[in-house]
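Project outcomes to date are best conveyed with an example. Our students and postdoctoral researchers have been running inverse folding experiments weekly, and each run begins with a structure described purely in C-alpha cells. The record below, which covers 276 residues, was selected by the lab manager from last quarter's runs and is presented without edits.
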C-alpha cells in the first residue's frame, strides 16, 4: 500500500475513535424528580339552610268593635256616652219606676240622641225632667213627642200634666181634651182634665170629667169630686184653700201601656193622677 493510503486510513480511524470518545463523555441529562402535585381538596358540600325560625302568625287585621259603655255613674254629661244605646230607653223606664230620676235622665238623653225621631224617647225624657222639677224642659220634650206622634194620647196627657204644674191651665186643658179624645177609657186622663178645669174655675166641666174617672174606679177622681161638692160657687173666693195638692207625677210612656191607671197609683188623693 501506498503511504498516502495508510495515512488516510489512520486519520479516519482516529476520527472515529474521537467521535466514540466524545459520545461516551456526554452524560444523559438528569431530570429533577417531579414533586407530585397534591390533588385539590374537594369542594365542601354547601351547608343546608338553617331551619326557619318559628314566628307567631300575624293576626289578620280586624276592625275592633267600639267599646260598649256601661251605666253612667257621675253627673258629667260625658257620662251619657257610657250608656249602652240598645238598652237606653228600657233602662230609663225601669229607673223611672224605681224613682231614680237622675239615672233615668241620663238613659233618656241617650235614647233621644240615638233615636231622635222616636216619640217615646222624647216622652220618657220629659218624664224624667218633670220628676226632677225641670218643668220647662219637660214641656219642651213632651211637645216634641206630640209633634212626632200627634196621635199619642200618652204624650198629650203628659204635656197637659206638665202645663198644670207650670200653671198654664188653658193650654193644659186643651192638651188633655185631645188626650181623652184619643184614649177615652183612661181614668187618670179624665182626672187630669178635671184638675185643669178646676183651676180654670170651670167646675161643672171639672165635675163631668171627675164623674167619668170615678166611673172607671179612680180613687183620685172620687176624692176630687167629693172636694168639689163642698164648693158653693163656680167662682171660688178662696181658691188657695181649695186648690188641689200637687205632687211629683210619674206620667205615662207614649208608646207603651205598662201599668196605666191602676189603683196602686191612686195614692195621695186629690192631686193629679199619676201612672208608672
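After processing, the design step wrote out the following sequence:
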Amino acid at each position: 500500500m501506498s503511504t498516502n493510503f495508510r495515512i488516510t486510513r489512520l486519520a479516519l480511524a482516529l476520527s472515529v475513535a474521537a467521535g466514540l470518545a466524545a459520545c461516551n463523555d456526554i452524560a444523559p441529562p438528569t431530570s429533577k424528580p417531579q414533586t407530585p402535585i397534591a390533588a385539590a381538596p374537594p369542594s365542601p358540600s354547601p351547608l343546608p339552610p338553617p331551619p326557619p325560625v318559628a314566628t307567631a302568625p300575624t293576626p289578620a287585621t280586624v276592625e275592633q268593635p267600639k267599646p260598649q259603655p256601661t251605666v253612667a255613674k257621675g253627673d258629667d254629661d260625658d257620662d251619657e256616652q257610657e250608656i249602652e244605646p240598645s238598652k237606653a230607653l228600657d233602662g230609663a223606664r225601669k229607673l223611672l219606676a224605681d224613682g231614680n230620676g237622675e239615672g233615668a235622665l241620663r238613659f233618656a238623653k241617650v235614647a233621644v240622641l240615638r233615636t231622635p225621631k222616636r216619640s217615646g224617647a222624647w216622652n220618657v225624657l220629659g218624664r224624667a225632667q218633670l220628676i226632677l222639677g225641670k218643668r220647662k224642659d219637660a214641656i219642651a220634650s213632651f211637645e216634641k213627642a206630640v209633634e212626632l206622634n200627634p196621635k199619642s194620647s200618652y204624650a198629650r196627657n203628659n204635656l197637659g200634666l206638665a202645663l198644670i204644674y207650670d200653671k198654664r191651665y188653658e193650654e193644659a186643658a186643651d192638651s188633655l181634651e185631645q188626650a181623652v179624645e184619643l184614649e177615652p177609657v183612661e181614668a187618670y186622663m179624665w182626672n187630669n182634665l178635671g184638675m185643669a178645669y178646676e183651676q180654670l174655675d170651670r167646675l161643672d166641666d171639672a165635675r163631668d170629667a171627675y164623674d167619668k174617672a170615678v166611673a172607671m174606679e179612680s180613687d183620685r177622681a172620687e176624692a176630687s169630686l167629693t172636694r168639689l161638692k163642698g164648693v158653693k160657687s163656680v167662682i171660688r173666693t178662696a181658691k188657695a184653700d181649695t186648690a188641689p195638692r200637687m205632687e211629683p207625677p210619674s206620667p205615662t210612656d207614649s208608646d207603651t201601656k205598662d201599668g196605666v191607671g191602676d189603683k196602686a197609683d191612686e195614692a195621695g188623693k186629690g192631686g193629679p193622677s199619676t201612672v208608672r
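Residues 79-244+254-262 form a domain with the Serine Threonine Protein Phosphatase 5, Tetratricopeptide repeat fold (CATH 1.25.40.10). DSSP finds eleven helices and no strands in the chain. The training component of this project remains on track.
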